[in-house]
Amino acid sequence: MKAETREVTISVNGREMTRRTEVRTLLSDFLRHELGLTGTHVGCEHGVCGACTVLVDGVPMRSCLALAVQADGAAVETVEGLAPEGELSQMQQAMRDEHGLQCGFCTPGILMSMLAAERAGVSCAEACGDVLGGHVCRCTGYQGIRAAVRRRWAALPAARGEETPA
Amino acid sequence: MNRLVGARVARINDPRLLTGRGTYVDDISLPGMLHAVMVRASIAHGRVTRFDATEALADEDVHAVITPEQAMARTHELPLVWLAPEQRHTRVPVATDEVRYVGQPLGVVVADTRASAEDALDVIDVGYDELDAVVDAEAALADDAPLLYPEWGTNVVASYDIGDTGEEIEPVFAGAARVVERRLHVQRLAVNPIEPRGLVAQWDAGTEALTVWISTQVSHHIRDHLAIVLGLRADQVRVIARDVGGGFGCKEHLYADEALACLAAMTTGRPVKWIEDRGEHFGATFHARDVVHRARLALDEDGRFLAIHSDILGNCGAHASNVGTGPFRISSIMLPGPYRFERAGTTIRGVVTTTTPTGAMRGFGMQEASWVRERLVDEAARELGVDPVELRLRNMLEPGDLPYDTRTYQRYDSGDYPEALRRVGAEIEKRSRPSEGRIRRGIGVATHVEFTGLGPSKTQQLVGFHLGGFETGVVRVEPDGSVLVSSGVVGMGQGIETTLAQLAAEQLHVPMSAVRVRLGDTATAPYSASGSIASRSMVVGGGAVVRAGARLHERLVRIAAHRLEADPGDIEVEEGVFSVKGVPGSSLTLAEVAERAWLGWNLPPGERADLEEKDVHDPENVSYSYAAHAAAVAVDLDTGQVRVEDYWLVHDAGTVVNPMIADGQVVGGVAHGIGIALHEEMRYDPAGQPITTSYLDYVMPTAEDIPDMDVSHMCTPAPHIPGGMKGLGEGGTILSPVTVGNAVAAAVPEIAERLVETPLSPSRMWTLMHEAGLHDETGLDDETGLDDDDPTSKE
């Protein structure tokens, strides 16, 4: 049976893309399979694990809980936009230095949430707490990710890198 | 020389994973690719009487529906790998119309998109003759229990003894000054790598070859079993694992649904992708644990351990899995732990139930053994009024006792078990925090010895494990001086690409940047039967790379010496440059040596041209890691919530190749175990319907559950492994559940005797504390804890 389709235009990492897609297509599937941006991963498809997190108009969103048509006209940021020149961003580098990833499957979602947190000016404690708390990682035990967040926040200009609870 | 082994080297695959350029299986897309979804049983027990796909096939998006009948006709039975003595079945069908668990694959829908395949699934009409379910292993032993295989006349799939039993051990218990006895249970768990299982299969009708990209820990094993099941020759099947988003044991064998997805590609002649969704994972991917131990510890009047025994009843699920009763067997052989016992043994019964089969998960059998032994030891300490660290030290094997033959057939190799515990114990006083009001605090410890680096093939033969235990490493210096390392082990996040590169670079005296590691593809990797399971990649696979690298280095030195007209003993190699000691200006780069060598020019007499060495490493024994852990917990007497506030441990995994990666493995393992201790539980209702099928019901540990922890390493090299490595991927998970359990017992001694099963969820904890009278002064003294006037309690 053919589902209803609609034209969707999304600016992804600063580049405008237009595709005709089924109205039921999830934003995660649209990014991955229609635009070929497979850096965004799908872990649970019910909005809990956070692996699929992208920024929609700057706001972190579970792309498995959104439809592509809902993002029509929006600006979406994905992990592919974090190191456009090939050099790791400071948060990516901190994750590498602090062993904040193992299998790497949940990592893109965490990077996107941390980018939003950094822009929103949240404290390091909140980034390690509430923000990281919205992601499930089976490999790392979160310790390396917290260390990476501390390293990144310590390098931020404002006085935001205060001590975090262990 | 700049040592690479033991250095905190950055992981070589991180940049691609951090920038979204990894290639996980769902990232692969082939021209003309179709999408498969599985038709799965919706009941726990019965027979399929109707499978009508007429309406689904009328949909133009649907290319094929494989029915149970067709699947049965086109597939052969799947051999089981680890067979117990007289196990009642040794092969299982890939497809059958007899249903024994919810989620069992019955057929396949293939359509243009995953969504249209799921639409079709909704209109496939499946009818059943339903039979009674039996979910619980003890219930499955009842005289009137429904039989899964009536021809057996029982639900017991295998039963046998390990170590000392009957007359060998009972007199010790009868004569002991004290016997601590408990019924202990480790819950059923779902494995939950964040990347679900999945594959892309492509059948080339011209060459009659099947290529399968799959998320797996064991490429060659998948290849061999796909060939058997699909009636192909092994050479017709190529299996490729690219980036794997975690395995943790559940991706260590071929599943029926994976074979059916490959059948769909062969049937349609088009590439087919199948990706498991998370809801499916909870029923379709093998579970783990679900075992009851009736266990006893005998002590003399001085608190010396005399004997340990457990009567193990394990729930195998709907059929023996690839490993069958293997987890219960590993529990048995590792039950004695780091202590001296006059006698030790178990009896094992594995039973089938109408649930998802249980198989491998990180900590395989050893987590359960630690839960049993270390709870009994802690209970003995409490009953005797002895400090738990002191009681353990009194009974531990000393370094001088090693190598030591246990009553359960293990020859422990090397280490200092008491030192690890003393170091952990020395921290207790300074880390201890007082209870406050209704928040109780306590610290618990636990220790273990771990079976890692499976293992000698001859041992695997002895225990009926039908996979070779060796690994092959191939190290090659290319004509341009670049280095290629190939191994049969698979990367799944444990950092094995980086650590193998470190080993090879160190042996060849070249920088890390010169080395590329190629894994996972059966067309290019050396054969590996067992793959990346059982904490063996570094021990067995790494050992092979060490030896191959060392041999290649010797040859390169000989060749360079010949070219430089020097004695090989006078050649120094630094960062890939060969020079003659004390002769400045006389040197050759690795590329200069390699280019000529591959031409076959200027070789010393007897030297061959190719710069490739292959080593087959079949170790003489497994290697035994060990650890001591401690946890500090806070227990809220009113809510039942347990918080792990502090965690520290001392671990010995022999040579640590990369301390950053090693710490990550241990910390991640502990976190997995804290999930087991506090939250995770796969549950069924009495009709055999799984009721924890999302992350809202099955609670995974998140950042707030896991404190930062302190990991220290002792490094006693494995005497029999080239490089001295022991395994370290599972130790964290093995010991943390019981460490947390012992800490909870210390915090709330009133319930210590009844802390026999996990998870110690708020509801279980609240109930135990309520029944122990800990709510008597708070008004929460009725049976339910609810106020009788509470309107929610009246309908």
Summarize the structure.
The complex is a heterodimer of chains A (166) and B (795). With 166 residues, chain A is of the alpha+beta class.
Please render the helix and strand layout as text.
The complex is a heterodimer of chains A (166) and B (795).
Chain A: E1 5-12, E2 15-22, H1 27-34, E3 53-56, E4 59-62, E5 75-77, H2 90-97, H3 107-120, H4 124-131, H5 143-154
Parallel strand pairs in A: 1-5
Antiparallel strand pairs in A: 1-2, 3-4, 3-5
Helix pairs in contact in A: 2-5
Chain B: H1 14-18, E1 34-40, E2 46-52, H2 54-57, E3 62-66, H3 68-74, E4 78-79, E5 91-92, E6 98-99, E7 105-111, H4 114-122, E8 125-130, H5 137-140, E9 156-163, H6 170-175, E10 178-189, E11 198-204, E12 209-214, H7 219-230, E13 237-240, H8 256-268, E14 272-275, H9 278-284, E15 288-299, E16 305-317, H10 326-333, E17 343-352, H11 366-384, H12 388-395, E18 404-405, E19 411-412, H13 417-425, H14 428-431, E20 439-452, H15 457-462, E21 471-477, E22 483-487, H16 496-508, E23 515-518, H17 537-564, E24 571-574, E25 577-580, E26 587-589, H18 590-599, E27 612-617, E28 623-636, E29 642-652, H19 659-678, E30 710-714, H20 731-747, H21 762-771
Parallel strand pairs in B: 1-14, 12-13, 16-17, 22-23, 29-30
Antiparallel strand pairs in B: 1-7, 2-6, 2-8, 3-7, 4-5, 9-17, 10-15, 11-12, 11-14, 15-16, 18-19, 20-28, 21-22, 21-27, 24-25, 25-26, 28-29
